[in-house]
Here is the input.
Amino acid sequence: MNKAIFYFSGARWEIKQGDLTAEASEAIVNAANSQMVMAGGLALAIKKKGGNVIEDEARQHCPVSLGESIVTGAGNLPARFVIHTVTVDEQGRSGKDIVRRATRNVLTWARNLKLESLAFPALGCGVGGLTIQEAATVMIEECLANMGLSPYPRCLTFVLWSEQNFLDFLKIADIFLARLTEKTFRNPLPTVDIIISIGQEVVLIKRKNYPYGWALPGGFVDYGESLEEAAIREAKEETTLEVKELKQFHTYSEPGRDPRFHTIATVFTARADGEPQAGDDAQEIGIFTRERLPCPIVFDHDHILQDYFNWRQKENLQKGFA
Here is the structure.
């Protein structure tokens, strides 16, 4: 049987080729319709092995809105629960936003039930119209975001029926999990962020990678590197700017500040001249005043920027009275 296992931030991630109905996870996920009719595909396989009792219980909750989820017992299946999540509309089509909401709602149930283990199929594929890689990208992003909210579930399994589907899903898992596993360990991760001023404006980058949106330049501190060295390097890599007057501003350590894992960020202020250019993980770059900040701003960087602008305003007032 094809399978791959990743250990990341205290959780076990398994991608495997197999039969979801045979999984002994505490809960398995069923890609459902709004009426909870289990008449085809995975839903029918779950009903055949687990018994009609699963569908009978599920239909007591219908109709269920698109992207929402309900929980039933698992009948004769090895699992304790089946989480039924609606992934197709009335025309039988799915989409990335639908799968994102569906995955998020499944994970909410997992947190509320304090499930140690959870097994997913690839949601929104087949008649739903998404490719395996599209589904994998959205589902893994949401599972990473969930890790910043709760320790549950501690074991995530993604079960694919065919070898090709397994390989397609694994390709996306490698992009996310293998790279992150190389960079992380179980303690909070030290990072730096840099507020770079050009005149009265600050430099922000639009990220290429998850979480998507605008952010301060910054990143991980490399082994053997000081915080100051990391800040200067990240500024250069992401903006091409040579910063000056580098000073520590504040440290931010709220566990949920990064949706992927717990980071402790030392924030620096600095000045620079010239025109910034997007580099490294930056898709776009811009300079902004407080009054016209872009949206969305990810992580807790909007909070950091408000702290910075308030501090600068106070400093300017004190200079005016000096």
Q: What stands out?
A: The chain has seven helices and 14 strands. The chain has two domains: 3-183, 189-321.
